[in-house]
């Protein structure tokens, strides 16, 4: 017999933009008093606050999750996944709607919450356990297991400020992963530690799911979702766009990366190939996973999907990088006038991530056929690059990060 | 300590949680708060441990701070200003009042800023938020205990005898904790929305000490002003501590006023806190 573990119906969540940005939400008394003095009437009419910009992070979200299901929540950043998890974890309240939880819910929204650097590993395990609602006896029972999982046996009585960052996150994850809960909510925490620890964490989550606990899992790591989950909920613009199998969910998610609407496409199109090609999506992948922000330490694979409306004897597709309006580079998917058959195509161009400076590049798409060349807009998409360079990058200035070696002889 | 109900993954013993939009004023979920009592304990000990880690003198600071304050006040108010002290040695007289006052001031100061100081926790994990300001109040209790021991020793030194009234310190401590918890909780919640209070609170506490009979006895206050001082919840507590330690008669009007205040403050503070609690994560 399986029953529902989570029942959500008509859940809406509204944020005030000012409030989420932190500054306006915490008004000073001066503001409040000032408002009253300036316009007491307006203040009274708009009871409860000044008129601020609002937006709905969740719009009418509803679903039932059965006991023992492992559900992957997928969607782009800002699609509402994290807001939903925050509501499920009771960190923030919904604006409308109702969620019923059957059983104890534990959330791993961010590992190491409440860790205090001055306290030892042992003290922090108890502190962290208590924050997550574990009883002292429960922690006692699992203590050795937690320490062994994190691999910090020698350092349990060392203040965690002396830990390496790897040890720190491993310990934090270990505490959270050993919680006894009926419903486990996990947000991106598997992205901690080295590859071996990530594998171990993933296995641990798999065990949890197999034990019949309900798991809600948010990750951009689609391989992990495929591995762990039996069902997927795809979020788009605060709504559940898809609810069903994992493979279909992932496909739906990938479709949501469409570069632009088709009307925009034809509007910007110039040249003789106007009726010959249609572009649908441009996806960035690193290590096989779809990414929105590029890690310069990894190779970047750009995947362009579309369709040719008729067969052309010679056509190469082109992706161009621009920064500050300067054309930096163009790359082609085929070598010198390869034939393009009518029907769907997938083009893939792979570049080293190390050439990118942190910040935003714009992407242009075009084609070359014989001597004819056209550009399908020079800013059809953007490419955001993070500061996070795992490898010690050379000092580099300019629009791109030129790979080089510097030496001096005297 | 009663038996802790262990969580059972069996269907019958399941817990049902309903998550709904906040509905204005609501009651405190006492069973839940009770269930998290260990967190209150752990957070309190965390505060205490962290306070004295990597300090050479460690918990010695709990003795040194009130001791130095006492010496300074004795010099300034006792020697130079010749403040009357109801016939007791001024050091003992002022220290017995500094005891509750120092507790009050550090407990309220710590808990007022506690929610803002623990913002990352509030936005990442759920637990009854009341635990945070309450644990700050709890953290100050250790210092109170240490400095009380010191007072008992000083009384022997100055030849002030221990009387049976000492037993009344205990209920007075309870009263003191309730008042401090009420004001600290209220200030912590208000500070989340209005950061002005992180500036107002220290200032408020400074002024508050001078309208409380800490450095002067209540008896020097003219009768028509005294009733005004009764409106201060700390008057009854500070005078009460003095009476209990020094064996002098209690001012029952002042103590009764403190009791009424404690109840009113704590009720109001908890009600307000519960009302705004669920917005904390969104605005902090």
- Estimated share of beta-strand residues of chain A: 25-35%
Biggest sheet: strand arrangement of chain A: 5-6-7-3-8-9
Shape of chain A: globular
Radius of gyration of chain B, whole Å: 21 Å
Query: Largest contact between protein chains?
Result: A-B, 53 and 45 residues
Annotate the secondary structure layout:
The complex is a heterodimer of chains A (410) and B (284).
Chain A: E1 4-16, H1 17-20, H2 29-38, H3 40-45, E2 54-66, E3 70-75, H4 81-88, E4 96-102, E5 105-108, H5 121-131, H6 136-150, H7 165-177, E6 183-187, H8 195-210, E7 214-218, H9 222-228, E8 231-236, E9 239-244, H10 246-255, H11 262-268, E10 277-286, E11 289-290, E12 293-294, E13 299-308, E14 316-323, E15 326-332, E16 343-352, E17 359-369, E18 372-385
Parallel strand pairs in A: 3-7, 3-8, 5-6, 6-7, 12-18
Antiparallel strand pairs in A: 1-2, 1-4, 8-9, 10-11, 10-13, 13-16, 14-15, 14-17, 17-18
Helix pairs in contact in A: 5-7, 6-7, 7-8
Chain B: E1 16-19, H1 30-35, H2 37-52, H3 60-80, H4 90-112, H5 114-117, H6 119-122, H7 131-157, H8 169-193, H9 197-210, H10 223-230, H11 233-246, H12 252-276, H13 280-283
Structure description:
The complex is a heterodimer of chains A (410) and B (284). The termini of chain A are far apart. With 410 residues, chain A is an alpha/beta fold. The model of chain A is unreliable at 19-25, 42-50 and 259-267 (pLDDT under 50). Chain A is globular and about 75 Å long. Chain A is built from eleven helices and 18 strands. By secondary structure, chain B is mainly α. Chain B is built from 13 helices and one strand, in the order E-H-H-H-H-H-H-H-H-H-H-H-H-H. In chain B, helix 2 (37-52) packs across helix 7, helix 4 (90-112) packs antiparallel against helix 7 and helix 8 (169-193) runs antiparallel to helix 11. The two termini of chain B are 35 Å apart. Residues 1-12 of chain B have low confidence and may be disordered. At the A-B interface, helix 2, helix 4, strand 4 and helix 5 of A face strand 1, helix 2, helix 6 and helix 13 of B.
